[in-house]
């Protein structure tokens, strides 16, 4: 599991990174809300540890902006006794909070609990996706944009569903070709590009969710 630790205190980041890696988490770090948002957009993050008091962009503002494009679980790091921060953090979209100073054991326990709740929620909703102007019924193979049904071929739907279910993660053309068409197919990198182009056209306003990462491949955001 990938955890993003966001804090402007070097010693705090060092301690959290060291302890979480002992528990077999992969840890990424950021020093403020702006860097955190960029990291979440570029990396496959499973949970965010987000401090409130930071320069450039504080944790509350960052939490609100993250919720505009991601439902990644967020665990707020708050100052001792500051009840207002905890309430504002939860209302801004945080899933839970932990008060500084905290024990590393409690932190890991809260991370595990937050991930369990997130995974349970994802399991309940893994047959349906809705965001802004697009909705997808995975079981029924139905895609709607602005409540209008979009007709997709089987491969187009499989490509869209794969990107959506792994939203935020960048996939190379080779990976998409192998996963959707199979390693033994006669498709080429151009096959993937053509299907992405057609998908964008058919999805109209929602086509912008499929983004090109130059020199790498594609992702859904």
How would you describe this structure to a colleague?
The chain contains 8 helices and 12 strands. 44% of the residues lie in helices and 22% in strands. The chain is α/β, with parallel strands linked by helices. The strands form 3 sheets. A 5-stranded parallel β-sheet has the order 2-1-3-4-5, with helices on both faces. The model has no long low-confidence stretch (mean pLDDT 86).
> How can the largest sheet be summarized?
5 strands, parallel
SSE order: EHEHEHEHEHEEEEHEHHEE
Structural class: alpha/beta
First and last CA, distance: 20 Å
Helix % is 40-55%
Report the principal-axis shape: elongated
Number of strands: 12
Indicate the radius of gyration in whole angstroms. 19 Å
**Regions with pLDDT < 50 over 5+ consecutive residues?**
none
Note the topology.
Layout: E1 2-6, H1 10-22, E2 26-30, H2 33-42, E3 47-51, H3 59-67, E4 74-78, H4 83-91, E5 96-99, H5 104-124, E6 128-131, E7 134-137, E8 142-145, E9 148-150, H6 154-165, E10 171-172, H7 173-181, H8 189-203, E11 210-213, E12 217-220
Parallel strand pairs: 1-2, 1-3, 3-4, 4-5
Antiparallel strand pairs: 6-7, 7-8, 8-9, 10-12, 11-12
């Amino acid at each position: 599991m990938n955890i993003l630790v966001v804090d402007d205190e070097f010693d705090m980041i060092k301690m959290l990174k060291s302890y979480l890696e002992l528990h077999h988490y992969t840890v990424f770090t950021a020093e403020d809300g702006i860097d955190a948002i960029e990291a979440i957009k570029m990396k496959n993050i499973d949970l965010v540890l987000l401090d409130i008091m930071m320069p450039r962009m504080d944790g509350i503002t960052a939490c609100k902006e993250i919720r505009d494009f991601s439902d990644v679980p967020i665990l707020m790091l708050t100052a001792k006794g500051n009840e207002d921060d905890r309430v504002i953090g939860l209302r801004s979209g945080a899933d839970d909070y932990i008060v500084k100073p905290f024990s590393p054991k409690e932190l890991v326990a809260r991370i595990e609990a937050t991930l369990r709740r997130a995974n349970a929620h994802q399991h309940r909703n893994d047959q349906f996706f809705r965001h802004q102007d697009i909705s997808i019924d995975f079981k029924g193979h139905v895609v709607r944009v602005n409540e209008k049904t979009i007709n997709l071929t089987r491969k187009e739907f499989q490509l869209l569903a794969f990107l959506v279910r792994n939203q935020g993660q960048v996939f190379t053309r080779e990976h998409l070709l192998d996963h959707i068409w199979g390693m033994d197919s006669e498709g080429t990198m151009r096959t993937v590009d053509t299907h992405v182009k057609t998908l964008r056209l058919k999805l109209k306003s929602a086509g912008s969710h499929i983004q090109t990462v130059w020199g790498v491949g594609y992702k859904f955001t």
